[in-house]
Amino acid sequence: MDTAITTKKNKQSAFSPFSKSKQPKHEFSQQAMPPPSRPFHVVIAPGQAGEAPHPAKLHYPLQPFRQTPGPIKTSQTYLQTLVLERWDAEIRLCDEACKVQLSERVQGPVTHQTFVQEIIVGRWVAEKKQCEEARKVQLLELLLVAHGITTLV
pTM for the whole thing? Predict the structure, then answer.
């Protein structure tokens, strides 16, 4: 029975403040309802709780952020090329940064200027050596992984 329909007893709306009729009691289902985020869930209307069958349990795949992607296959030469290009770019940047620092005007006596230039060149040479060593280490790691060696003991 819908509460918006007028009652037969006194022909007044059920929502009227002067109505003396009692509101009908609705029977609500005690079943757990699926959350509204699930598509195509079954809603059981009040009063029909016993008539509707229990909805089948829906199985959804995990959210994308919970799934681990599979391994990506790439060729060894492609990975080596990427590593070499990256470290060659780093070495070029070291050379350029050294030239920029040397081109800056240093104030003071000539002996002081040569001393500062030696410090600048020494720093960037050390940086280039570190980049070259890192390139060799990364290429060695690629080679070891290609042969199935993942840990060194």
Answer: 0.50
Query: What are the b/e assignments for 6-21, b being 16+ CB within 10 Å?
Result: ebeeeeeebeeeeeee
* 94 class by beta-carbon count within 10 Å (0-12 exposed, 13-18 middle, 19+ buried): buried
> Could you report the per-residue pLDDT of 60-110, keeping only the tens digit for each?
666 666 667 777 788 889 999 999 999 999 999 999 999 999 888 777 788
